[in-house]
């Protein structure tokens, strides 16, 4: 065999080996994904199968006021209002603060000691148990300031849990924007804040929305902070600034520990409602982000 034929055969062998390795790794990655996704699908599927069957107009439009655990009836109207208000206030508090901190860490404070200290505190906050955030708000806001149990206290506890998730995810998305886009803006004479506001943030919009949705999903199911801040309320309370307030996690927690089947059924239905709400919110936000991004590019 000539040298050229040997070289060609060697190239063919290397290509075949590369394809074999690539195919094997692809199969392993797909298998790992399926292995990780199976428990998720089982949990979601089982919860929906147990909960959706108990959906009714009464369940969504009535509260649990006057409904004993042993009797059917009642619903999650009070809990739904409380969850919407508490998570909404927490989002309004944590998203602007988290985005501002992420912009500083990714754009202004790179390599500085203060940015390193802030990044360290964010990592610490990420690992703080949710009950600690609830106890902090309980001791400072509910007791020390004499504000009492309220939806606002619950929202402050949830915002503490949301803040590090928003900061870290937003920082990663902003840092992932290509440097060439920033340099193009500077070449056009734009100031730094305009480059960030009109080039960096729109480019990272999809990732930023995903990070916010992850933070919302992170706190929507939290129960421990709400036990010491909102404290639950069987009656509808639309004022988050005053008085005890219910929430979907509290309904799930309180009803699931009852010894009566009607209460357990309400817990399954409330859990299914929470899952469907989070999935719907996430899909809607992603579609809106893509539509806006597509509209601008067009």
From TrEMBL:
SUPFAM superfamilies: MetI-like. It comes from the Bacteria. Its main location: membrane. Signal peptide: none annotated. GO terms for biological process: phosphate ion transmembrane transport. It is a multi-pass membrane protein. Keywords: Cell membrane, Membrane, Phosphate transport, Transmembrane, Transmembrane helix, Transport. InterPro entries: MetI-like, MetI-like_sf, Phosphate_PstA, Phosphate_transprt_permease. The chain crosses the membrane at residues 20-48, 87-106, 118-143, 149-167, 195-217, 267-289. Residues 80-287 form the ABC transmembrane type-1 domain. It is found in: Cell membrane. GO terms for cellular component: plasma membrane. Pfam families: BPD_transp_1 (PF00528). One of its GO terms (molecular function) is phosphate transmembrane transporter activity. Part of the binding-protein-dependent transport system for phosphate; probably responsible for the translocation of the substrate across the membrane. Belongs to the binding-protein-dependent transport system permease family. CysTW subfamily. NCBIfam families: 3a0107s02c. This is Phosphate transport system permease protein PstA. It comes from Acidothermus cellulolyticus (strain ATCC 43068 / DSM 8971 / 11B).
